[in-house]
Sequence to fold (82 residues):
Amino acid sequence: MVIDELFEEVYEISWGLNRLILEGSTPVISFGDFTKSSIATLGINPSPLEFINRRGHILNSSEKRLVDLESLELEPTDFLLS
Fold:
């Protein structure tokens, strides 16, 4: 399936760029139900301001629109243990 191949490619590229990922944030792979979509787009979003405020502090839970490591109750190295 094309979506699976695209997902794998985006995943591999995003981890190659992990030095650009804001600590405590998580990659945003998609919005909505990908099984019902007919078009896929690729962008460099989200903005760092989806995870931090203008002073550079991680947003508190009531301000978050996207998941991050804290809301998933994960440590930055947990993915290494799975």
